[in-house]
Amino acid sequence: ARRIQTSSVVSMVRDAIKTKTRVYVNLAQPELADMVAARNVDGVGLLRAEFIISGIGKHPNYMIETGRQEEFINKLYEGIVPFAKAFHPRPVVYRTTDFKTNEYRELEGGDKYELPEENPMLGYRGASRYIRDIDSFKMEIEAIKRVRKDYPNLWVMIPFVRTVDELRRTKEILEAEGLKRGPDFKLWMMTEIPANIFLMDKFIDVGIDGISIGSNDLTQLTLGIDRDSEKLQETFDERNDAVMAALEIAVKTAKRKGITSSICGQAPSVYPEMTEKLVAWGITSVSVSPDMIGTTREIIAKAEAKVHG
Ligand code: PEP
Ligand code: MG
Where is each PEP-utilising enzyme C-terminal domain found (predicted)? Predict the structure, then answer.
């Protein structure tokens, strides 16, 4: 008989654990979708669109100018479907495109439409783009809508929202295009700018179903450290008291307002012990890298036993 290795027994046991707090996964590459979906995971907490768009390789404005909207929409649709299909009926939270201008410039035709910026990380990105370049955003929405015809488990998350007004206007565009919140469609906002923390109540009052903490950008902006700085790598630490205070406010405010809260930055993947605190504060899901699904489920189970007795 074939001997079962200890490691696979461990993962079988882990895969049987059930928790109230959901374990989601962060994904970008379609070829991983089926394999990861077979695991004990409750959905995709962050589907990064940038990998798909890089694959298309062409700037959205360039596609519009050359009359190839349909081609762009269809390719984006084809890029999203494998995720929505693999995880159906579990939710797949699609994060609308969050390329920075330097990344957009790498796409075909990109240099014509993107002005070079000194600090692209703080530049024309996220929701600030959707409300200024509505035609590109509409193509993205159209692709989402087409996927949702067969896979209504595809939800939407808005990244890098600087002001309450940006969230309101982004939501208005989504609604005008037919993506309205309901039992079948959830709208989330990423919480990754200190302004989101200070004004958490006001952002939530715009009308969203959930928040997901982008701890990578939130740490960068809370500590004022370029997340890619090698020199300051050691100081860039999500366990810093100020960052933890921000996470606590986000999770507790979401709980008080009765909406779901999640985290999709790398923090709980790199520092899994952090998950215990997040659960104690009342987070409703934790989204981690595929290799951390089992460990995170175990930590959550232990943390829930502590919280609920
Ligand atoms: C984050 O900022 O934590 C996040 C998940 O988004 P990204 O890393 O893609 O900026
Ligand atoms: Mg981010």
Answer: 18-304
